[in-house]
Specification:
With about 240 residues, the chain is mostly loops. The chain has helices spanning about 5-15, 205-210, and strands at about 225-230, 235-240.
Length: about 240
């Protein structure tokens, strides 16, 4: 973009409803107010979108790969099938956004707020979601292989049928989360809180993984892992898998 930053911001803020397929590649839009903007199909690759206000914006099928969205407000935004691969979303506020089918692989989501987001069939491979808030997300069939979720809040999350192989869940809160039919091969559950979680029909879960986690009598395990409780906190796992 050759237009100077102040005039570009002013122009875009006054044209919120007419930005579909806009070429904003590499643009400096730090702090711009684009609440409710129509940005479907826009090209914002590598743009500076720090602290941008995009709440309730329509950004479906847009390209935001490698963009800097740190501290951005994307709450309630429609990002369906958008490409955010490699983007910086650290500390971003994305609550209740629609990210179904979007690509967030390789993104920085450290301490981002994605609470209650729609993430059905979203790709978040090799992303860093450490200490993010992902409570009550709708993430069925997500592709999240080898991502880092250290200390991430995932209470009540729907991760049914998700690809979670190789994910680092160390110190994550997964109370009452639904992981039914998920692939958990090689996932790290060191000190993860799985109290009340649904782990029925999962693939790749081992007794060693469970022994590193915190569970209770409400935790639903796959049929090949039987629990013999000695007390409210002490248990022995009987592995019947051949």
């Amino acid at each position: 973009m050759t237009e100077d930053t102040p005039s570009l911001k002013k122009k875009l803020e006054g044209s919120k409803k007419f930005l579909q397929n806009a070429d904003l590649k590499g643009a400096d839009l730090e702090g711009a107010d684009l609440q409710g903007a129509e940005l479907g199909g826009a090209d914002m690759r590598g743009a500076n979108l720090k602290k941008i206000f995009l709440s309730e914006a329509k950004i479906s099928k847009a390209n935001l790969s490698e963009a800097d969205l740190s501290n951005a407000n994307l709450s309630g935004a429609d990002l369906n099938k958008s490409n955010l691969g490699g983007a910086n979303l650290q500390h971003a506020y994305i609550r209740r956004a629609d990210l179904r089918g979007a690509n967030l692989s390789g993104t920085n989501l450290i301490k981002a707020n994605l609470r209650e987001c729609a993430l059905f069939k979203t790709w978040i491979k090799k992303a860093d979601c450490s200490e993010a808030n992902m409570q009550n997300i709708k993430g069925a069939q997500m592709q999240m292989q080898e991502s880092v979720l250290k200390g991430t809040k995932l209470e009540g999350a729907d991760l049914s049928g998700a690809r979670l192989d190789g994910v680092n869940f160390e110190d994550a809160g997964l109370q009452t989360a639904n992981l039914s039919s998920a692939n958990l091969k090689g996932a790290n559950f060191n000190r993860a809180d799985l109290r009340g979680a649904n782990l029925r029909y999962v693939v790749g879960l081992t007794r060693e993984q469970i022994e590193l986690a915190q569970i209770d009598k409400r935790t639903l395990l796959p049929s090949y892992l039987k629990i013999k409780w000695a007390s409210e906190t002490q248990f022995k796992i009987i592995d019947n898998k051949s």
